[in-house]
Input
Amino acid sequence: MMNKAIIWDYDGTLVDTRIKNFNVTKKIMNRLVGMKSREYSALESLENYNLATRRAKNWRELYRNEFAMSEEGITQAGNLWTGYQLSDDSEITFFEGIEEVVRSLSRYPNLIFSQNSRSNIAQVLESKDLLRCFVDIVGYEELSSSNQKPAPDGLLLCISKIAASNCKHLFFIGDHETDTLCGHNANVRLGKSDTDARVINVAALYGSKNNASDWAIRPDHIVNSAQEITSFIESY
Output
């Protein structure tokens, strides 16, 4: 049983944070550029924002490409993120069935690797008594700008935290093409080390309109409901 471990993305995989992230991004951009923030197409509507996040490989690329921000400005936006997240009361909902899935799989080591902030994720999980189901959380602030997804460093950091468990099958569940690319890059790195552990990329498409058929790197498995995660991992 213990040869398996599960690493979860957060936004779009465990929880639907689209409305909250949209509102927080608008507040941050208003803080940084004032009235000019209303000129950006990505901030005109939730639909536009969602499309912009799908185009970006990571949050830094989102700010760089959609808002033409400098690296200094992007870092400043990142520093504001956690505070605005914690103070914003926009609704966050767990995807249907996901709470039960997390609890049912909690006998395996579970971690979260996300481009959201560690403290924000922990607060949301604690509100549902789910924080105890996870060994650890790796948030964006634990990685340098060059080591954000799709770089594999955060995923490998998660793996290092459960090294003593000697897990060989590492299921990485995410909703974005960047997550699958990150898992692929982690396998390249693992292949050069003295381990037979492998990342198994699971694309969770139940919370988005994604079609993984056009992804540069195809996932190992696709799920269209939270319940399918349990059956896939248990039968692997």
Notes: The radius of gyration is 17 Å. The chain has a mean pLDDT of 95.
